[in-house]
Design goal:
Mean pLDDT: 96
CATH class of the largest domain: Alpha Beta
Number of domains: 2
Low-confidence stretches: none
Bound molecules: D-serine
CATH superfamily of the largest domain: Type I PLP-dependent aspartate aminotransferase-like (Major domain)
Shape: globular
Strand order of the largest sheet: 4-10-9-8-7-5-6
Largest sheet: 7 strands, mixed
Helix content: 40-55%
Distance between the termini: 22 Å
Number of strands: 17
CATH topology of the largest domain: Aspartate Aminotransferase, domain 2
Strand content: 5-15%
Number of helices: 15
Structural class: alpha/beta
CATH architecture of the largest domain: 3-Layer(aba) Sandwich
Length: 426
């Protein structure tokens, strides 16, 4: 067959873009060659609807082994009793939890999207907000931290059936114990979406939500550094049924409800090549080097947040406990929107994303903030010492976002430095 020059040239250009720039999107990372090898393997050819040992297709005995390996490794990473490694994404993992725990129209409580929450935690344009009754809690305006009092008040007054902790742009540790307490008080299920800090949690640098929540979901590609995908986990609450009855009147265990919510509830055939790549990434996460990597992610983020503060930027909550930080541009540049800032930085080969900040005066299309994260640059080998240089470059761009000559100079500096941190072997 003739080589698809057109498509592979596009991939080459994306590889060049990833190589020459500074990647600061908090949810991105660079996977290992082994993870990519598994994703691009013959496993993509296999249909395997069902679960290991109970498939709807023949010839699944080999992929049963890789899926079971992924399950066992994931359980070890988080000390979980039960896992499902089939969700194609974090949003689909969340959708499966909604399907297993709620009926359409039921109330649930999640963090406001514009305060750092996630689309699938109740946004009105997402299935979660469209099909269910979403209630939201915020962060506090004075310190940018979760307003646990407000969360408790809403929980007691509204009695949602599900409470969700977890965020896309929140840089602090969570008080899971406190949320579990109120969930128990009102008989709600407590779910944590740990997608962002999952790698730091696996390395033992942040609290493990599997110990506090009934159900935990995650993506596998952010700090965790695996292929794009999702997972669901349960800890010691695993054996308890929740009293949801089947049409035949049986009480089903939550594990069975979740398995059937993933397949056949929201998905068909699992992506066995991606599940194999998840197994590789989970294996990497169980190695001692992983902890060193995650520790460096955290140190780099702390150093970067300090550099921003030293340059007069407002970092929401005054710093970070994890891999990310949210900058409110209004303190230093009242007229600069996140949209313009993101565009100017991308022109300088510094990739980040505009983000709403809590109590933002601008829309989600403009925003007053930028979100930064250190997982990708840490994989690349950058250390705390380089964070001041990066923040200096960002500051130069944001000071004159319309000055193309200045941006060009920054870009040349970025490219010259990043050559020193090789990425891909091929
Ligand atoms: N969109 C992802 C992020 O960037 O955080 C979350 O799913």
């Amino acid at each position: 067959m003739q080589r698809d020059i057109e498509l592979f040239d596009i991939i080459r250009r994306e590889r060049d873009r990833q190589t020459r720039g500074i990647e600061l999107i908090a949810s991105e990372n660079y996977v290992s060659d082994q993870v990519m090898e598994a994703m691009g393997s013959v496993l993509t050819n296999k249909y395997a609807e069902g679960y290991p040992g109970k498939r709807y297709y023949g010839g699944c005995e080999v992929v049963d082994e890789s899926e079971k390996l992924a399950q066992e490794r994931l359980k070890k990473m988080y000390d979980a009793c039960w896992v499902n490694v089939q969700p194609h994404s974090g949003a689909q993992a969340n959708m499966a939890v909604f399907m297993a725990c709620l009926q359409a129209g039921d109330k649930f409580l999640g963090l406001n999207l514009s305060h750092g929450g996630h689309l699938s935690h109740g946004s009105p344009v997402n299935f979660s907000g469209l099909m269910f009754h979403a209630l939201e809690y915020n962060v506090k305006e004075d310190d940018g931290r979760i307003d646990y009092e407000q969360l408790e008040q809403i929980a007691r007054a509204e009695r949602p059936k599900l409470i969700i902790a977890g965020a896309s742009a929140y840089s602090r540790e969570w008080d899971y114990e406190r949320i579990r307490k109120v969930a128990d008080e009102i008989g709600a299920i407590f779910m944590v979406d740990m997608a962002h800090p999952a790698g730091l949690i696996a390395a033992g640098l942040l609290k493990n939500p599997v110990k506090y929540a009934h159900i935990v979901t995650s993506t596998t590609h952010k700090t965790m550094r695996g292929p794009r995908g999702g997972v669901i986990l349960m800890g010691e609450d695993f054996p308890n049924p929740w009293g949801k009855t089947t049409p035949k009147g049986e009480i089903k265990m939550m594990s069975a409800l979740l398995d059937s919510a993933v397949f056949p509830g929201v998905q068909g055939g699992p992506l066995e090549h991606v599940i194999a790549a998840k197994a590789v990434a989970f294996g990497e996460a169980l190695m001692p080097e992983y902890k060193t990597y995650q520790l460096q992610v955290q140190k780099n983020a702390a150093a970067m947040a300090k550099c921003f503060i030293d340059k007069g930027y407002k970092v929401i909550s005054g710093g970070t406990d994890n891999h990310c930080m949210l900058i409110d541009l209004r303190t230093k540049f009242p007229d600069l929107t996140g949209k313009i800032a993101e565009k100017a930085l991308v022109a300088a080969d510094i990739t980040t994303n505009k983000n709403m900040v809590p109590f933002d005066s601008r829309s989600a299309f403009q925003t007053s903030g930028l979100r930064f994260g250190t997982p990708a640059i840490t994989t690349r080998g950058l250390k705390e010492e380089q964070m001041a240089w990066i923040v200096e470059l960002i500051d130069r761009v944001l000071t004159e976002p319309d000055n193309s000559q200045n941006i060009e100079k920054v870009r040349a500096e970025v490219n010259a430095q990043m050559v020193k941190y090789p990425l891909f072997a091929w």
